[in-house]
Amino acid sequence: GIITEGIMANIGVIPPAKGYLHGLQDLAKANGILFILDETVTGFRIAPGGCQEYYKLAPDLVTFGKALGCGLPVAALCGRAEVMDALQWGGVLHYGTHNGSRIGMYAARANLRVLTRDNNAAFRHTWRIAERLCEGYRYLFQKKGIAAIVQNVGPMFQVMFTEKPAIRDYREFCEHVDRAAFQKFVLSLFEFGVYASPSAALHSIVTLAHTDEDVERTLEAAEKALNTA
Q1: What is the C-alpha to C-alpha distance for residues 67 and 74, in angstroms, rounded to an integer?
Q2: Is the alpha carbon torsion for 36, 22, 174, 143 positive or negative?
Q3: What would the mean pLDDT of 155-173 be, rounded to a whole number?
Q4: CA–CA separation, 82 vs 86, rounded Å?
Q5: At residue 27, does pLDDT exceed 70?
Q6: In sequence order, what are the residues at sequence separation of 6 or more whose Cβ sits closer than 8 angstroms to the Cβ of residue 109?
Q7: What is the pLDDT of residue 101?
C-alpha cells in the first residue's frame, strides 16, 4: 500500500503540490494496492472530514488521533467496509491497549459535537483567526525586511526563516530554513508572554479557544521579539 500524510506536519507545514495526493491515489488504485491517509495530525483540524474532505480524496484507510480526543489518548482507524471487514473475527489482528476505551469514546463524541455544531462554526472560526494571525506575521516580516515566510493550511501554520518564497519538501526545509533563527525568535516570544514550540520542524495550531485578542497579543509580542533580535 501507499501511506502518506495529507499535509507534511512534522517538518513545519508543507502543503502537497497540486495533484500530488490524487496522483498517489490513482497510482494505488491502478496497481490494486491500498491508499492510506494518515490524518493523525490533520484530522478534525483542517475540516470536519480532514484532508480527505478538503482535498476531495477517497482513501481506503484513514488514521485519526490527537484532535479527535481533545487531549485524551484516543485514536481511530477508519476505512471502506470491504477493507475494515478483514478486522472481524481475527482475520487481521488489531491489538491495542486503549481499544474501546469508554472515557476516550465519550470525550471524542463530546468533542465532535462541539466541532460540528452550528453547521461547523468551529472550523470557520479557526480558519478566520489563523488567517488573521498569519497575515499579521507576514506583514511584520515585510515591514522589518526580515527573510521569513509563514506557511499554513487553515489553522495549521509555521513560521520559517528563509530566503525562499516557499518550502516545498523535506530537502528544501533542511537546506534553506534557518532553524537557529526560529528558535531565537520563539525564545524571545517567551519573554513577552507567548508560547510556541521552539522546534522549527513542528508547527502551531489555532484552536476554538483562540480569539482576536489573542492574535493582537501575539503580534504585539512578535514585533517586540523581532526588535530584540
Answers
A1: 9
A2: negative
A3: 97
A4: 7
A5: yes
A6: none
A7: 84
Confidence class for position 229, pLDDT limits 50, 70, 90: low
CA distance 59 to 3: 10
Closest Cα to residue 182, out of 146, 144, 214? 146
- Residue 89 clears pLDDT 80, i.e. is over it: no
pTM: 0.92
* Distance, CA of 192 to CA of 138 (rounded, Å): 19
pLDDT tens digits for range 57-67: 999 999 999 99
Instruction: Find residue 79's DSSP bridge partners.
Output: 61
- The grid cell for 44 is 478534525
b/e code 58-80 from CB counts within 10 Å (16+ = b): ebbbbbbbbbbbbeeebbbeebe
Task: Enumerate domains of the chain plus CATH numbers.
Answer: 2-109 (3.40.640.10), 121-228 (3.90.1150.10)
pLDDT (0 to 100) of residue 163:
98
Q: How far is CA 148 from the centre of its chain?
A: 20
Rounded Cα gap, residues 6 and 39, in angstroms: 7
Q: Which residue has the cell 472515557?
A: 103
Contacts of 101 (CB under 8 A, 6+ apart): 73, 74
**Integer Cα distance of 76 and 117 in angstroms:** 21
CB neighbours of 187 closer than 8 A, spacing ≥ 6? Answer: 198
